[in-house]
Design goal:
With 144 residues, the chain is α/β, with parallel strands linked by helices. It has one domain (4-143): 3-Layer(aba) Sandwich (Rossmann fold), CATH 3.40.50.620. Helices cover 50% and strands 21% of the residues. The model has no long low-confidence stretch (mean pLDDT 86).
Length: 144
């Protein structure tokens, strides 16, 4: 049985550390990785039809930009790693979306990077790491 790991990747140094860790684990276990990039998107309930159409257009543009700027380069870089790699690009709450990706992919682990600093919003609303620790359907590894 292969071991599939979902890696939360945002292109940052901590995201890179998480990806490097996941590649090492997958290589050692004969597993695969899903590089997941989640764009925060909060729906607004009071939009006009024209605003909804414009927002949908911007959403498609942001997804295309994220694929080109964040995911495609790292997938190309990992092509020679010997680890089977796929991607997931979604909108939503980061922790909830990573949990859904892990469930949908049948992953056995989620790996994320730690940013090393806490913002006011993280202290008020909880960090991605904290949310994952409470809600993830599989073990979560936080890479420093």
């Amino acid at each position: 049985m292969t071991h599939k790991i979902v890696v939360g990747f945002d292109g940052s140094a901590s995201g890179r550390a998480a990806l490097d860790f996941a590649v090492r684990v997958a290589r050692a276990q004969g597993g695969s990785i899903v590089i997941a990039h989640v764009l925060e998107w909060s729906p607004y309930s009071f939009l006009t039809p024209n605003e909804i159409e414009e927002r949908h257009k911007r959403r498609k543009e942001e997804l295309a930009r994220a694929r080109t700027a964040v995911l495609d380069p790292v997938v190309a870089e990992l092509a020679e790693s010997g680890v089977e790699t796929s991607t997931a690009l979604k909108y939503g709450h980061i922790a909830e979306t990573l949990c859904k990706i892990a469930s949908d992919e049948g992953a056995g682990q989620i790996v994320i990077g730690r940013t090393g600093h806490s913002t006011l919003s993280a202290r008020l609303f909880g960090s991605v790491a904290g949310s994952l620790a409470q809600a993830a359907p599989v073990p979560v590894t936080i890479v420093p």
